[in-house]
Structure formats: C-alpha cells, structure tokens
Write a structure and sequence with these properties.
The two termini are 26 Å apart. Residues 369-373 have low confidence and may be disordered. By secondary structure, the protein is α/β, with parallel strands linked by helices. Strands 9-8-7-10-11-12 form a 6-stranded parallel beta sheet, sandwiched between helices. The chain has a 4-stranded parallel beta sheet with strand order 3-4-5-6. Strands 1-2 form a two-stranded parallel ribbon. The longest helix has 18 residues, at 355-372. The radius of gyration is 20 Å and the shape is globular. Strand 7 (191-195), helix 7 (218-225) and strand 8 (229-234) form a beta-alpha-beta unit. The protein has 14 helices and 12 strands.
Length: 373
C-alpha cells in the first residue's frame, strides 16, 4: 500500500514492480491496496491483484498475509500476527518534525497531541523493518518513531529510476518522456517547471482531505515564463483540492495518478518549499528553487525543522513570487550547483539504483522461511 491507499506510487510500487521483473508473481500472491482499484487497473503488473481498501476482503487478506509493505501507516485497529513481517518504507527524508518530535498538533481529526503521539508509537511498534535514505534519517526515525528494530540503510526504491538516469544505466521501461508530455498536454519545444509543495496541517476540508495551500501568483508566473515553460503542479498525496487553479494554458495539475519520479525526470527545474522532494530531486543535479512564503509560521508554529533550512536548502530560498521569478531568471549559479551536489552526497549516500532489489531479497528470504515452517 502507498499513500494510505490513495495511489499506486512510491517505494511500494517500485518494490512491487521489481518483484514482477524478477518473475516472483508465481511464487508470491501479491495484493496492492487501493481506494479505487479500477483507476489503476491498467498500471498494476500482470498478476498483481488489486484489493479495495477497508472492505471485507481487505481484512481477510491482511490477516492472512505473511508480509506487509507500506509507505504510510496501516490503521491502528489492524492487529499484525507475530509471524507477519512488516516492511515500512516511509516516504521521505524528514525536514519537518514528525511523530513524537512534534510540539504542537494542527492537523484535522480532533486528536490531542498526546493521543496522536501514542497512536503513532503503537503503530511504529508493529514495524519490523524501516527503510532509510541516509544516516540523518536513521537518527531522526529512532526518536521520532520510537523505533528499535531494523533500519535498512539502502536508499529509496522509488529513486532507482533517478540513479539509473544519472548513471546512464538502463531507464525503467515504465517511463516514456514523450508519452508523459502528451498526457500532460505539454507542447513540443516547451520546458517544464515542476511545482511540488508539501501540505499545510491547518488547511483542510475534512480529516482526510487537505487544501492546496499557496500564495504563488500564477498570473505573474505565466506572464514571465508562459512562452517557454509549462508549470506542472504536483499535489501532495494528502491534498484533494476542490477548486481549479488559474491559468489553464500554463498550469497543469497532477495528483497521485502520475508517479512523481517520472515528473522529476521530465522537469527542467523544481519549485518546492519544505517537501522531501528536495532530497530525491537533488540526485538529478538540476536547479531547485524554494518558494517559502510562510517560512516563519511553518518553522515556528506548524511544524518546526530538523535542519537549518535556509542554510542547507540546495537552491535559493525566497518568500515572494517576484523574488522567485528573479531567481529563476538569474539561473542556477556554479556555486548553487556545487551546493546541490554536496546536498545530494550528504542525503543520498545509499542510492545506487538497486534499493528495490535489496528489499526484494528480504522478501524472498522470508518466503523461503515460511515454506520451511
């Protein structure tokens, strides 16, 4: 399961597809949990069984499964058998504070901070393996999740495709730039800006769906860049925006229907804020710009940071649309490029293009063990 069942993406998808490439779908019965299985019917590898989230059959399969894989948390009322192995892949290096490290809670749902943290602690106690992208994440995960079992310092399976691209290895066949450009209606000759901000804890429609929060002036962006760029806006998986964004000739919106690693490969530059996309995208060494319009509030009230964000961000940090426009027009300087390379070296030291294979090896060993039992 990925993104709480909302999508077929991320680390679980990469692991699933590696199992398919290795011909393991006859040896293992694989289910992928989805809120809307019909939507992803054509994307799942042949032999992978879609399973509708939180329905009767879902509970039967979860109770019987020998291995669970997720990048978020399963429901706390799901009781894992002792024989079941739970591989928690997580979904990003933490810039913003998580779990037990939060000092305040502003999320939808009505829980108190203590209730939220206790539920988080109970959930993390069910994980047997936790994947880490770097030593920094490993340290944070230990105390933020109160996690005492095995951390797999192997990099992220979802980044295998990025590493293969940089190293000019074989690109995974599921990625076609021309097909993606057609899908997003990007005219030939136009470059791509990818805008991928995180969600805001205090901006929501209900306890499950969050609003798209930004102060970016799309009209000014179109005026300055509309002749040469298309702006692809990637919503966070928690966001379910009900209002259309302006400038449809310039702006394209994307939810969970497109794997973000493919958008990274398509994008000529990235605009983000406090999202962990910065860690993944740095692998490519392409320009990044940080539109942090609510920096003080986010840092001091909503979440808080583990890093000195302004000092470490691998690109210019700006708080207004005009400043963002000026930074993009100025271009990525040699100093900024070098800083980005150092950032990637620090936060992606384990990514070698084989993270998916390493997780599948654990799954295969577990499969042998079950047969022996």
């Amino acid at each position: 399961m990925s993104s709480l069942g909302r999508s077929y993406t991320g680390n679980p998808r990469a692991i699933c597809e590696e199992m398919a490439r290795e011909g393991l779908l006859k040896r293992f019965r694989i289910y992928y949990i989805l809120d809307d299985p019909k939507y992803y019917q054509g994307e799942l590898p042949k032999g992978v069984r879609p399973l509708k989230n939180a329905r009767f059959r879902y509970y039967i399969v979860m109770a019987a499964a020998g291995i669970w894989v997720s990048d978020t948390r399963f429901q706390n009322y799901m009781i894992k058998r002792k024989e079941t192995i739970y591989i928690q892949t997580w979904h990003g290096t933490p810039l913003k504070k998580l779990g037990l490290d939060l000092k305040e809670l502003h999320m939808a749902g009505g829980e108190s901070l203590l209730e939220y943290q206790e539920e988080f602690r109970k959930n993390a106690a069910t994980w047997d393996y936790l994947i880490s992208q770097n030593p920094f994440s490993s340290r944070v995960f230990r105390h933020a999740f109160d996690f005492h079992k095995t951390i797999l310092e192997i990099g992220y399976p979802r980044n295998d495709i990025l590493v293969k691209s940089v190293k000019e290895m074989e690109i995974l066949p599921s990625f076609s730039e021309q097909e993606l450009r057609r899908k997003l209606r990007i005219p030939e000759g136009k470059k791509v800006m990818l805008y991928a901000p995180t969600w805001r804890d205090d901006r929501f429609y209900d306890e499950r769906d969050y609003q798209f929060a930004t102060e970016l002036d799309f009209f000014k962006m179109q005026k300055e860049f509309g002749d040469s760029y298309v702006l692809v806006v990637k919503f966070h998986y928690m966001v379910r925006e009900k209002n259309a964004l302006p400038c449809p000739d310039f702006v394209r919106t994307v939810g969970e229907e497109i794997e973000i690693s493919k958008l990274y490969l398509l994008a000529d530059l990235l605009i983000t804020d406090y999202s962990s996309v910065m860690f993944d995208y740095s692998i490519l060494g392409r320009p990044m710009y940080f539109y942090a319009y609510d920096l003080e509030n986010y840092k001091d009230v909503l979440r808080g940071f583990y890093l000195d964000f302004e000092a470490e961000a691998p690109g210019p940090v700006v708080t207004t649309t005009p400043a963002l426009i000026a930074a993009i027009k100025r271009g990525f300087s040699p100093e900024e490029k070098a800083r980005c390379q150092q950032f990637a070296k620090k936060y992606n030291p384990f990514d070698d293009g084989n993270a998916s294979k390493k997780v599948v090896e654990i799954i295969k060993r577990r499969g042998v063990k079950r047969e022996d039992e």
